[in-house]
Amino acid sequence: MSEELHARLRQRGRASVDFLANFGFGMSDLRNSVEEEIQRIVPDPDALPDDLDQRDARMQQSLGASQAYRATQAVGEWMATHHGLVAKHAFEEVREEMEPILKKFEQGGSTVEANPDMEAPAYWDGVDFHRTAGGWDEHDYQGYIHADIVHTRLVAKTFPGGIFAQRRMVAALPPKDHYDKIIDMGCSTGHFTRALQETYPDAEIYGVDLSLKTIQQAQRLGNANGWSWKLYQRPGEDTGFEDETFDLATSYILLHEIPADTIKALFKEAFRVLKPGGDMIMSDVTRYADLDKLAMWRADAGAKYGGEPHWRASASLDLAQIARDAGFVDVTAKAFDPFKYPYVVQGHKPE
Ligand SMILES: C[S@@+](CC[C@H](N)C(=O)[O-])C[C@H]1O[C@@H](n2cnc3c(N)ncnc32)[C@H](O)[C@@H]1O
After folding, report:
1. Residue whose CA lies nearest to ligand 1 atom number 12
2. Domains of the chain (ranges plus CATH)?
3. Residue among 311, 328, 218, 318 at smallest CA distance from 271
4. What pLDDT is stored for residue 135 in this prediction?
5. Closest residue to atom 19 of ligand 1, CA basis
6. Is the pLDDT of residue 228 over 60?
7. pLDDT score of 172 more than 60
8. How many C-beta atoms lie closer than 10 Å to residue 221's C-beta?
9. What's the CA gap between 8 and 138, in Å, rounded?
10. CA 47 to centroid of chain Cα atoms
């Protein structure tokens, strides 16, 4: 994020955001107590029900008497419902001084093609992803609020592993040193697009996303750094580009946001728009197959109560097979330690 784009929050907004971020750390003792309780009541994770809903019901019932668990649940619920509001209020306090800066960076080499007539898919439109009322496009500056406040000041501090370093690591995985034309599907506010541009400085980068507000923020990020990104409000599964246009097709944590059929369509679309010999890299959340039953319950419960309606289905898929079915060859899949995250599928289109 360019310094000028990074809001100087007022004391109240900054304190509220910092409070949320730090509260997560302050809860570590409580979390440890819950962990001990879980170890006590689940001596053998393999004995838990196979069905994920039944497993959750069993865990909720067994943990219901634990005060520590009830406290962590209440705090989790409060954070899930309030982080978006806290971020929005923090932005509103500085809106007047930030608006001219945000408008300034809407000019430049990075462009946005809005698609007001697009009929947004039912799985996306009006869904409160991440428990943010109204979802991705709720506020005029939702993309900015998300990138500068939620991601940079909250998620980056509390999510394990360094969310920006992870993107840079994945961007460097494709096999060639140079790509002429890259398409980043579900580019959102441009965090991964940025990692791609920094890794392949001469590449011409295209981004598609259903959310206009987030690609407007990607545009500001691109312009603030002197990059010329071509951003389109279009679905990743139907990008509208000609066959054989790109040398590299990517997505970063898009797949768990879309239903299984759309994931399959997205891989096929990536295959279609790639030139022969082009590379594909899709990176997403931890596969359930890489987790034991208890870890899977934790991930699944986190997704369920955190406003991620498609996570379970997506995390249960065999993405490497889906890539092969779409036509990709030499497909590999790798889960990165210590959290088996991100999960990265790569392959290429035959020459
Ligand atoms: C978690 S974000 C992606 C993050 C981004 N790639 C990054 O590196 O920060 C998910 C994005 O996918 C977008 N999205 C959801 N379904 C989509 C689809 N079918 N086609 C394109 N974008 C989609 C959402 O609007 C949202 O901006």
Report:
1. 186
2. 3-109 (no CATH), 136-348 (3.40.50.150)
3. 328
4. 64
5. 235
6. yes
7. yes
8. 26
9. 23
10. 32
Pull the structure tokens for residue 284.
Answer: 């997403």
Contact 68, 34 (CB under 8 A): yes
Specify the 3-state DSSP secondary structure of 152: helix
- Contact (Cβ atoms closer than 8 angstroms) between residue 303 and residue 274: no
**Are 78 and 131 contacting, i.e. CB atoms less than 8 angstroms apart?**
no
Closest C-alpha to ligand 1, atom 26: 188
Distance, CA of 90 to CA of 242 (rounded, Å):
42
Q: Could you tell which of 139, 146, 254 is best to mutate to test the pocket of ligand 1, judged by most ligand atoms within 8 Å of the CB?
A: 254
Rounded distance between C-alpha atoms, residue 342 and residue 334, angstroms: 8
Residue-wise pLDDT tens digits, 75-94: 888 888 888 889 999 999 99
User: 51 CA to middle of ligand 1, Å?
Assistant: 29
Residue range 119-146: mean pLDDT, rounded: 79
The Cα 121–Cα 47 span in angstroms is: 39
Strands in 142-273 per DSSP E: 181-185, 204-209, 230-233, 246-252
> What average pLDDT does the structure give for the chain?
93
**Burial category of 95 from C-beta neighbours within 10 Å (exposed 0-12, middle 13-18, buried 19 and up):** middle
